[in-house]
């Protein structure tokens, strides 16, 4: 497995991404969709882990239109303030466009099987949901996605397997929003919803204030099985 920063060409300009390559040089792909902290050490570690499991893993820089190269460590107030500023000014539609460009880039890599999934966190959880509705991604996973309840009108367009991990005590996704997500998606045959009782936002981020190893391990195992079943079969 090896990882490197790469350049991705789009119609609006070039942007960077972190690409981790499987040791065998062949396999399906996974887009790793960032939180509001950019392509930081945590996101790179997730990509590296996916590469050890036989995937090309690409984490594109989705804040490049505001400030390229953001890598924040969420352990200071200044980092949080900067992250929320970037989040407030983020154009979701352009973000999905950049992810679709990144999806095409992954599919075109030498050794790629052509199958590509995505997994995203926080803002990336919302974007994973939107990728299931707006793109031809083969499978999508969202962890504690913020704002999905405001985009439920797009649920009818979901046409690929989608798994969402919902933190029941998420400070950024209240119980009303969670209920709306369930009401809109429970009967969708493409969608699997998992709830994690007592878990708060970012419960899977190692080193974070709300990290819950037991529930994170469960969510990550479910994701591993889901992606393998849909991308490696």
From TrEMBL:
Pfam families recorded: DLH
This protein's record includes keyword Hydrolase: yes
Keywords assigned: Hydrolase
Species assigned in the record: Govanella unica
One annotated GO molecular function: hydrolase activity
Protein name (Swiss-Prot/TrEMBL): Dienelactone hydrolase family protein
Record-annotated Dienelactone hydrolase domain positions: 15-228
